[in-house]
Specification:
Strand order of the largest sheet: 1-23-19-22-18-17-16-15
Bound molecules: fe (ii) ion
Mean pLDDT: 92
Largest sheet: 8 strands, mixed
Structural class: alpha+beta
Low-confidence stretches: 1-24, 460-465
Number of helices: 6
Number of strands: 26
Shape: globular
Length: 465
C-alpha cells in the first residue's frame, strides 16, 4: 500500500516538473511601488527664466566623434538674438571666445517655436572644465561643462542612463535623484523625451516645458540622444507628415562625424567607450542607409583605444514585459549577429516602462524553420538592459510574463535611473536606482566584464559592489 502511494507521489512530482520548468536564477522583484498617478506637472511649474527674451531650455551634447567639440543649444522666445555664446576655460577666465549659432524655427500645426540656436564649439582641450554664457539685455545665463579625457583604454568614466523620462512628478524625482549623484559625467538618454504627443495636436508647448525641466542637468553635461517613438510626431490628420520634426529641430547630434547620413543614428567615442546609437523608427532592413552605415561602423571600432562597445536603441530586443512585447524583434533579427560577432558589451534600451536586465544570451541560430527559437547562453553576447522607467505620463508597465524567462536576470516595475561606472578596460559596474518614494535606492547591480579584454562570466563573480 505504502509503495503504491510512494509511486503515485513520484509520478505526480515528475509530472509537475515537466509542466513547471524551473528558472535558473532570474529575479522578479517583489518591491511594489506606492501607487501614484502618473500626471504631468502643470504648466505653472515650468516658469521660463526671468527677463525679457531670456535664453531658455539650454542643453548640450557631444559635438564631434571624439569629445573635443560640444553643441550648445538654447531657445530665445521672442527675439532671434542672442545667437552667440561666450565660453572660456575655468582656469583661464581671460581667454574668452565667442561662437555664433545657427538659428532655426519651426511650425507644428498651430504652434510656432521660439528661435532655436545651435552653436558647435570645436577644438576644446580634453579633460577640461569650461564656463559658457548666453547673455541678452535683461538676462545673463552662465553654465559650465567638462570635456571628457582623450579616448583611451583605461580611462575611467561614469555615465548616467535614463529612458522615457516625460514630465510628471515622477520624472522630476528621477531627474533629482540622478543629479544628486555627483559622479555621473554624461547621460546616455534612451529616447522618449517630452511625451508632448500625448496631448491634443501634439501640443509642442510641452516640448518647451520639458526643455525647462531637464535644463538643470543637460546644460551642465552632454546628453547623448537616442530617438524614440514619442519623437516621431507624425500626424497626418493635422497635416504634420515630417517625421521627427520637433526632435530634429531641438536635439542636434554629431552624426556626420561618424559618416552617418541621418541625425537619428550615429556614433561617438567618449573616454573608454564607443557608443553606437540606433533608430528603432527608421528603416533598418538590408540595403537601407542605417543598415549600410552600421555594417561599416563595426570595423571602425578599435577596442585597444575604446574597449567598451555600447549600443543605445529605443525598442528593446530582449524584454519579458507584456507592454510593447516583441516590438524590437525585427531589429534584433537584423542586427544581433553583428552584435555578437563584434562582442558588444552592453545594449541599453527604453520604451518599456519598467526595469529589466538580461544574462548574456543570443538567439542568432533561429531561422524560423529550424526550431532553435530559444535564446542560449553566449559569452560573446551583450547584456541587455531595459530602462524605460524614467517616469512618464503613461505609467508603469507592470505585467511581466510568467514564469520569468531564463534569459531574464532581474526585473522590476518601478521608476528609476541607472549608472554605468567604467573602471578600466576590463571592469565596469552597473547600478539601477529605483525611485523608492523620495529616495534613490540601489535595487539591482552587477559587475560587467569587458567582452574583448576579459570575457569571463559575471554570474559567478564575487567581487564586492
Ligand atoms: Fe517608447
Amino acid at each position: 500500500m505504502a509503495s503504491k502511494a510512494w509511486c503515485g507521489s513520484a509520478i505526480l512530482l515528475a509530472l509537475l516538473f515537466t509542466i513547471v520548468k524551473p528558472s535558473y536564477g532570474g529575479i522578479t522583484s517583489k518591491y511594489v511601488r506606492k501607487a501614484q498617478p502618473s500626471i504631468d506637472m502643470p504648466l505653472k511649474d515650468y516658469p521660463p527664466p526671468k527677463g525679457y527674451n531670456a535664453p531658455e531650455q539650454v542643453h548640450i551634447t557631444q559635438g564631434d566623434h571624439t569629445g573635443r567639440a560640444i553643441i550648445i543649444s538654447w531657445i530665445t522666445p521672442v527675439e532671434p538674438t542672442p545667437d552667440t555664446v561666450t565660453y572660456w576655460p575655468a582656469k583661464e577666465p581671460c581667454e574668452k571666445k565667442v561662437a555664433k549659432a545657427s538659428t532655426i524655427t519651426y511650425k507644428y500645426y498651430t504652434y510656432t517655436s521660439g528661435y532655436i540656436h545651435h552653436a558647435t564649439i570645436k577644438e576644446l582641450e580634453y579633460d577640461t572644465k569650461y564656463f559658457y554664457e548666453i547673455a541678452c539685455d535683461e538676462s545673463v545665463r552662465q553654465f559650465h561643462f567638462s570635456t571628457p579625457p582623450a579616448p583611451g583604454p583605461d580611462v575611467p568614466y561614469t555615465f548616467g542612463i535614463i529612458g522615457d523620462l516625460g514630465q510628471t512628478y515622477a520624472s522630476k524625482e528621477t531627474l533629482s535623484h540622478y543629479i544628486s549623484n555627483k559622479n555621473a559625467q554624461a547621460m546616455l538618454f534612451l529616447g522618449d523625451l517630452s511625451y508632448a504627443d500625448d496631448y491634443p495636436n501634439h501640443d509642442n508647448v510641452r516640448w518647451d516645458t520639458w526643455g525647462r525641466l531637464v535644463e538643470r542637468s543637460v546644460a551642465y553635461q552632454p546628453w547623448i540622444w537616442t530617438p524614440g517613438n514619442h519623437e516621431i510626431d507624425f500626424d497626418q490628420d493635422i497635416g504634420e507628415i515630417e517625421p521627427f520634426k520637433p526632435y530634429n529641430h531641438r536635439c542636434p547630434t554629431p552624426y556626420k562625424a561618424s559618416g552617418s547620413t541621418s541625425p537619428l543614428w550615429y556614433s561617438v567615442k567618449r573616454a573608454s567607450a564607443y557608443i553606437i546609437v540606433l533608430s528603432s523608427y527608421s528603416a533598418y532592413g538590408k540595403y537601407t542607409p542605417q543598415y549600410q552605415w552600421l555594417e561599416k561602423e563595426f570595423p571602425k571600432v578599435n577596442r585597444s583605444e575604446t574597449p567598451w562597445l555600447i549600443i543605445l536603441v529605443h525598442s528593446p530586443w530582449y524584454n519579458s514585459n507584456g507592454y510593447h512585447y516583441m516590438e524590437g524583434e525585427t531589429m534584433r533579427v537584423q542586427f544581433e549577429k553583428w552584435v555578437v560577432q563584434n562582442k558588444v558589451d552592453l545594449v541599453f534600451a527604453g520604451h518599456v516602462h519598467s526595469y529589466e536586465r538580461s544574462f548574456r544570451i543570443s538567439n542568432i541560430k533561429y531561422n524560423i524553420t529550424n526550431g532553435l527559437s530559444f535564446p542560449v547562453n553566449d559569452s560573446s553576447a551583450p547584456m541587455y538592459f531595459t530602462l524605460g522607467d524614467g517616469g512618464n505620463i503613461e505609467g508603469l508597465a507592470a505585467e511581466f510574463s510568467a514564469p520569468q524567462p531564463e534569459y531574464s536576470a532581474f526585473r522590476e516595475a518601478s521608476f528609476g535611473h541607472a549608472i554605468l561606472d567604467i573602471k578600466n578596460r576590463t571592469h565596469a559596474h552597473f547600478t539601477w536606482h529605483r525611485n523608492q518614494d523620495d529616495k534613490p535606492v540601489a535595487a539591482d547591480s552587477t559587475w560587467v566584464f569587458n567582452r574583448y579584454w576579459f570575457a569571463q562570466d559575471e554570474t559567478n563573480c564575487k567581487l564586492p559592489a
